[in-house]
Amino acid sequence: MRKARIILGHGSGGKLSHDLIESLFMPRFINPILQAGDDSAVFPLTDSDRISKRRQLSEDEIAFTTDSYVVNPLSWPGGDIGRLAVCGTVNDLAMVGATPLYLSAAFVIEEGLPISTLRRIVTSMQRAAKEARVKIVAGDTKVVEKGSADGLFINTAGVGLLSGEVKISGSNAQPGDMVIVSGTIGDHGIAVLSAREGLTFSNSFKSDVAPLNHMVDAMLRTSHKVHAMRDPTRGGLATTLNEIARQSKAGICILEEQIPIREEVAAACEILGYDPLYVANEGKLVACVAPEDAERMVQVMRKARYGHEATIIGEVLSGPKGRVIMRTRVGGTRIVDMLTGDMLPRIC
Amino acid sequence: MRKARIILGHGSGGKLSHDLIESLFMPRFINPILQAGDDSAVFPLTDSDRISKRRQLSEDEIAFTTDSYVVNPLSWPGGDIGRLAVCGTVNDLAMVGATPLYLSAAFVIEEGLPISTLRRIVTSMQRAAKEARVKIVAGDTKVVEKGSADGLFINTAGVGLLSGEVKISGSNAQPGDMVIVSGTIGDHGIAVLSAREGLTFSNSFKSDVAPLNHMVDAMLRTSHKVHAMRDPTRGGLATTLNEIARQSKAGICILEEQIPIREEVAAACEILGYDPLYVANEGKLVACVAPEDAERMVQVMRKARYGHEATIIGEVLSGPKGRVIMRTRVGGTRIVDMLTGDMLPRIC
């Protein structure tokens, strides 16, 4: 019998990733905080097993998240691995409604990396942290022999503060909610791919990698009815909507003609055979918002630096549970599933 | 001019690592929390810039730390990368006197890794987390193409809770403090090396990788005069003592004959040309404790599971500032410097 082995698809963020998490990690690490399955873990800062009641700090909670970044190449139009490593983790904290405060940064460096490259990337992290108003307070540096890693991998973990009033979760989307996306989809994946492959058919690709926490601040000041929020990174918009539909045991219906996409990205996807619904974003969010607040929310998002093209793309339904359905431009209906396999490896 | 490049020594934890941190990371990420330079960042959970006073949770503080583990091979007598990834981060939290509570775990996996290997390592993490009584609450999985990483790298970040009363720092060692080491040195480095190189001259090497937080709990219940604490991992006991001496602007004098070391480890070091003072440990700590409490502390440590061989090895002096001096077995005196270069790469 051949040994089962890890394949690239296990890192895609799509179906294989979910299967690996469910079958291998979850049974061993199981606890209610992990099981929530949102972009950040959320917990009160106390340990009920061991620490006396006095130590429960307040009703406020901590948000905590981690991501490793293995993107190839190390920089591309609109971003680099440093900016990505800060924004990705800031956004994961923001997606549960937390205020991102502190980041750690751990570097695994391949021997031979030019120090000037490292300096440029760390400077980019500094800028992104300043923009997001987070502090990098802990770090680690490891070096491995030439050939044992690909240039540079960065891990960031993040800690944020969550007001006791905020309850945003991928499992909290409500039938009737409007589904809002904050802007055009697919920009990041296509920009990284074009840089990696040296594609020259367009020079206008630009990644959207950006910290979304200031926009989220404005959103949460606008309405207490943001029920679910997530950034559609690996696996793209389609995978993220499927996660929300499954976790919330609801259906989601989106309208193809409402989904914002740059013309050149749509064209590149067409030529390369990619479905933009599955292409990664690093500066976009999806929110499920009560219908009475949805229009106002879109207006608020459009005033934010990274939300100019925010738009309502669909609706949460009571069923079919766990399913995402798209009404196509030509008037048909199509089931939109999670990403299967790995369309674009090493995009984040 | 040749481009300056990263070399293995930049990851050694010794002098080159310190230089890289001081010259490249610190100027860009600079903030008082990071500058403290201890094994974990310590901060109140508040953001004075943005969050109203109401949000300061209490006088208690958070400890936050991260480490990536790139050890080669993935397992060795006494441990594996999974146990190491949990214990290493638990220990970094414990070294500032915090109670470790929550961990994140992020995996960078090389395509082709047998899933059975991953399962074994994740099971080992589960066991270590149970022993340390911490929960793994956030995770990430990335997969890179065959040849772009070496099997598996794991990053863990950790969050702990620090009582307002505890002030332990590498910069807080006081002249007169006794220097205590919790047991034999060099076990981890030599065990990993022997597994990697297939050394067969002894089969009795065993890594000491272990969570030290329960022993630290007992220590902090015994005395409020633990001034400095650190685990001598990369760079070994010598590098850790140098860090404390520098940060505390004090001198440290140790007695060679008091330093516990297994006979077979001493013999291996002799044959291989290593100085055990620079060989990594993953289940040992060094503490600087007020002299009136030191003997009692040693007794408490010896009752703990991982402290049977705890012993006083020296003393903190008012000078020479930043220097570590060893009185040798033959009655001489030797300056013990930080690790220069990289003696044993990929040991953690």
Give a brief rundown of this model.
Two copies of one chain form a homodimer. Chain A is of the alpha+beta class and 348 residues long.
Structure description:
The structure is a homodimer of 348-residue chains. Chain A has 2 domains: 31-162, 2-Layer Sandwich (60s Ribosomal Protein L30, Chain: A), CATH 3.30.1330; 178-335, PurM-like C-terminal domain (Phosphoribosyl-aminoimidazole Synthetase, Chain A, domain 2, Alpha-Beta Complex). Chain A contains 9 helices and 14 strands. In chain A, strand 3 and strand 4 form a beta hairpin. The first copy, chain A, starts with 14 loop residues before the first helix and ends in a 13-residue tail after the last strand. Chain A is 31% helix and 23% strand. The longest helix of chain A has 18 residues, at 115-132. With 348 residues, chain A is an alpha+beta fold. In chain A, the strands form 3 sheets. In chain A, strands 9-11-8-12-10-13-14 form a 7-stranded mixed beta sheet. At the A-B interface, helix 1, strand 2, strand 5, helix 4 and strand 6 of A face helix 1, strand 2, strand 5, helix 4 and strand 6 of B.
**Overall 3D shape of chain A:** globular
Number of strands of chain A: 14
Helix content of chain A: 25-40%
The poorly predicted ranges of chain A are 48-57
Highest-level CATH class of the largest domain in chain A: Alpha Beta
CATH fold assignment of the largest domain in chain A: Phosphoribosyl-aminoimidazole Synthetase, Chain A, domain 2
